[in-house]
Write a structure and sequence with these properties.
Strand order of the largest sheet of chain A: 2-1-3-4-6-5-7-8
Mean pLDDT of chain A: 96
CATH topology of the largest domain in chain B: Rossmann fold
Shape of chain A: globular
CATH superfamily of chain A: Thiamin diphosphate (ThDP)-binding fold, Pyr/PP domains
Largest sheet of chain B: 7 strands, mixed
Number of domains of chain B: 2
Strand content of chain B: 15-25%
CATH superfamily of the largest domain in chain B: Thiamin diphosphate (ThDP)-binding fold, Pyr/PP domains
Strand order of the largest sheet of chain B: 3-2-4-5-7-6-13
Radius of gyration of chain B: 22 Å
Strand content of chain A: 15-25%
CATH class of the largest domain in chain B: Alpha Beta
Radius of gyration of chain A: 20 Å
Helix content of chain A: 25-40%
Number of strands of chain A: 10
Number of helices of chain A: 12
Shape of chain B: globular
Number of domains of chain A: 1
Largest interface: A-B, 46 and 42 residues
CATH class of chain A: Alpha Beta
Distance between the termini of chain A: 47 Å
Structural class of chain A: alpha/beta
Order of helices and strands of chain B: HEHEHEHEHHEHEHEEHEHEEHEEHEHEHE
Oligomer: heterodimer
Helix content of chain B: 40-55%
Chain lengths: ~350, ~400
């Protein structure tokens, strides 16, 4: 009788890049894609592939990073890549990892650690694919990473609201009208904590931003090295969907962090670590910028009147002042006892 | 006196065994013999017993595979799809609305050239709920590039599963294949089955080789990039090419199966029963063959020359061959355990296909009467078969009959 609690396989153990000058020149996501100017989602594809390196399989669910990204005869991918269905990033990663594992065990394929990454957009991940990702997070035997790039809308299909679109946003499914100014009453889905709290055996969950590329790459490397299924949520400003000048892409990524809207953190083996400006906000060394500075740079919030901005600000203030783990876990600090 | 005893494990390797098993168990054993790499399960009756057996085989160390219980049928089929692209031999299955829940994954699997072998434990679609057999579940993928076969015994289920891997993984094919087993009547009914020796199976079934379509860091390819109007027609035409080759490949594999294991299936596409001197025939798929055969033997005693054609392969549909067979008779009755609401003549799926095949493939075009019966697991009884035969004889005499009739319907 054999008893194994978790049947782990070794990973590639990718060390962090120690400074931008130590990052290798090789690109595994190169020319050939047709994404928009200033597309931060394409940026995370590039960083993710660079961080993972050549012994990697990438599975991409439907979304901008499929349709605009990978055209027949013009693929940008320098690692094996496959399209997967919109809601299937979780199943794709699980299937590939299981396929490799079985063949390596039986000796029909060379035994080596191969990175398996499935990416999805916010529509594919936070909406349609949530169930499959959740299921995959419960399989500790398989080494894989699900990376959700979040441009806060179905940006490839004409910009429609998704489960991660901000409150009140103007999209083609939530256009302000004569009677209703606000058509999207939903608050952004809190994906990384959902993954971390709901799946206690997951060893790594984190948020990243393409405005901090070195950190983003190192977090991808950590997620690929730690073993088991891991999840990263990346915020990606989108000039087309958010309606701003592409030169502002990088700045908006920073502003999302500096206003406290997009906290940067990682949870490694259950230990929460805030990093970058988020850590400074939490420790009181940096005062959050007003959300107005972020919102008013984007056409998608142009219909906001003062009270909308105030409401948005109050929700972000609550997030930092009232939440049990500020910016992350939305339970009230006061725990009721009888 | 010395007795020679061979250890059980060694016996399984080198000698054929015999066991009393269900249709579902037979397919589980075929998966073990085929050394399947990745299996995904999700519960729905009645196919799910195959996954119970596989789970036990894995726990007992008799089968070495990644056995994953998915969170829904869509994931179940997506997981094996990706495992197969990475070179693994895979198995999966479903029933009824579970199969329909996986529909998106079922759609892309043939387009991606995935040789997935699936078992469908045929079940009525909701609503209202019914566990029993109906063929509309598997038939829902008939236009998408899946190969579809119906079996009527546990032995045929086991043999067909081995044949299925050979056919699906043939480099000329690389498309998914579903083996339909009538819910309860086959999935849960036991029969004596000859289990081939593992070594023989190894000879019959070479390792799955995806060649230059393999997704692996040693073979840097991009699978299924966006093509739009530029190329989608050419790519669809490649799948059409598979259907052009399918009948030849299936014939080859059955011949090789016969050579290897000594069990004969004759014409792979349909099986004829007492048709040699028959004036009329009935035609159907799956386990209805049992009551039909019993009824035919009874009718023959009464001097009624009726035979039966059991269709084994629905996709590919051996149209010309079937038309040539059926034109020998004065009339044909097709028993559909399915429906195709709004179809020409309001018939079932099989009757519609048979008429279409006859229109081009037969010069005599005998009348084809469609019957709809046995839905939701209701039995097709011997008296039902007698009723249908009488109607077909009337048609053979030139007396016009309604083209679609519901049989065994309560008043």
């Amino acid at each position: 009788m054999s008893t194994t609690f978790v049947d782990e396989k070794p990973t590639q153990n990718l060390e962090a890049f120690k400074g931008v000058k130590k990052v290798p020149y090789e690109e595994y996501y190169t020319s050939g894609h047709r994404t928009c100017q200033g597309c931060e989602s394409a940026q995370i594809m590039k960083l993710m592939a660079k961080a993972a390196g050549p012994r990697t399989i990438v599975l991409g669910s439907t979304g901008c990073m499929y349709v605009a990204n990978t055209s027949y005869y013009a693929t940008p991918w320098g690692v094996p890549w496959m399209h997967t269905q919109l809601g299937s990033s979780g199943s794709a990663a699980l299937g590939a990892a299981a396929g490799l594992r079985a063949q390596m065990r039986k000796g029909t394929m060379k035994d080596e650690p191969i990175n398996v990454i499935a990416f999805c957009g916010d529509g594919g991940g936070a909406d349609m694919g949530l169930g499959a990702i959740s299921a995959t997070m419960c399989h500790p035997d398989y080494n894989l990473l699900i990376l959700m790039y979040d441009n806060e809308s179905y940006a490839n299909t004409d910009i429609q609201i998704s489960g991660t679109s901000p409150y009140g946003v103007n999209t083609s499914f939530s256009t302000p009208g004569k009677v209703k100014r606000i058509m999207n009453h939903r608050w952004k889905k809190n994906m990384a904590p959902l993954m971390m709290v709901g799946h206690p055996t997951v060893k790594y969950v984190g948020t990243i931003s393409t405005s901090y590329p070195l950190q983003a790459m190192n977090n991808v490397r950590k997620a690929l090295s730690i073993g088991g299924p891991t999840f990263i949520h990346c915020l990606n400003p989108c000039p087309k969907g958010w309606d701003f000048d592409p030169v502002l892409s990088f700045e908006l990524g920073e502003l999302a962090v500096n206003t406290g809207i997009w906290p940067l953190y990682e949870v490694e083996n259950g230990k929460l670590k805030l990093y970058g400006k988020t850590e400074q906000i939490a420790s009181g060394r940096f005062k959050r910028l007003p959300v107005r500075d972020y919102l008013l740079k984007q056409g998608r919030f142009a219909h906001f009147i003062e009270e909308d901005i105030e409401y948005f600000q109050s929700k972000i203030d609550d997030m930092w002042n009232k939440w049990l783990v500020p910016g992350i876990i939305p339970l009230q600090k006061d725990i009721e006892t009888e | 006196m010395a007795t020679l005893t061979i250890p059980v494990e060694e016996k399984k390797q080198t000698l054929e065994q015999e066991a009393l098993i269900t249709g579902a168990e037979a397919i589980a054993i075929a998966c073990k013999l085929a050394n399947v790499d990745v299996v995904t399960a999700y519960p729905i009756r009645p196919y799910d017993t195959v996954m119970q057996y596989i789970s036990q085989l894995v726990a007992d160390g008799e089968m070495d595979c990644e056995y994953i219980v998915a969170e829904g049928e869509h994931s179940q089929f997506e997981i094996v799809k990706h495992a197969s692209v990475c070179g693994a031999r895979v198995f999966c299955g479903s029933s009824g609305v579970g199969w329909m829940y996986a529909m998106e994954a079922l759609t892309v699997t043939p387009a991606l050239r995935i040789p997935l072998v699936a078992m469908v434990g045929n079940r009525a679609l909701d609503d209202p709920g019914a566990f029993g057999v109906e063929h509309n579940d598997a038939l829902a993928v008939r236009d998408l590039g899946w190969m579809l076969t119906w079996v009527d015994s546990a032995q045929e289920a086991l043999d067909t599963a081995l044949i299925a891997y050979r056919v699906a993984e043939d480099p000329r094919m690389l498309v998914p294949l579903a083996i339909s087993c009538d819910g309860a009547f086959l999935t849960h009914s036991q029969a004596l089955v000859k289990i081939p020796a593992a070594e023989q199976v190894k000879k019959f079934l070479p390792r799955y080789n995806r060649g230059d379509l393999l997704l692996h860091p040693d073979n840097v390819i991009s699978v299924a990039p966006q093509v739009n109007e530029d190329w989608v027609m050419e790519i669809r035409r490649q799948n059409y090419g598979v259907t052009e080759r399918a009948c030849d490949v299936i014939r080859e594999v059955y011949a090789d199966f016969e050579r290897t294991f000594g069990r004969k299936y004759g014409n792979p596409f349909f099986e004829e029963y007492m048709t040699e001197d028959a004036e009329v025939v009935l035609l159907g798929m799956g386990t209805m063959s049992t009551p039909v055969r019993v009824a035919i033997r009874k009718l023959r005693e009464e001097g009624k020359k009726v035979g039966f054609v059991r269709l084994r392969w629905f996709r590919p549909f051996a149209g010309p061959e079937l038309a040539k067979c059926l034109e020998r008779f004065k009339a044909v009755g097709v028993i559909d355990r399915d429906f195709s609401f709004g179809s020409p003549n309001l018939s079932g799926v099989v009757a519609t296909e048979v008429r279409s095949a006859m229109y081009t493939g037969s010069s005599t075009r005998p009348p084809v009467i469609g019957f709809i019966g046995g839905l939701g697991g209701r039995e097709v009884t011997v008296p039902d078969v007698e009723t249908m035969t009488d109607i077909v004889f009337q048609a053979a005499k030139g007396k016009a009959q309604p083209l679609t009739q519901w049989i065994g319907l309560r008043g």
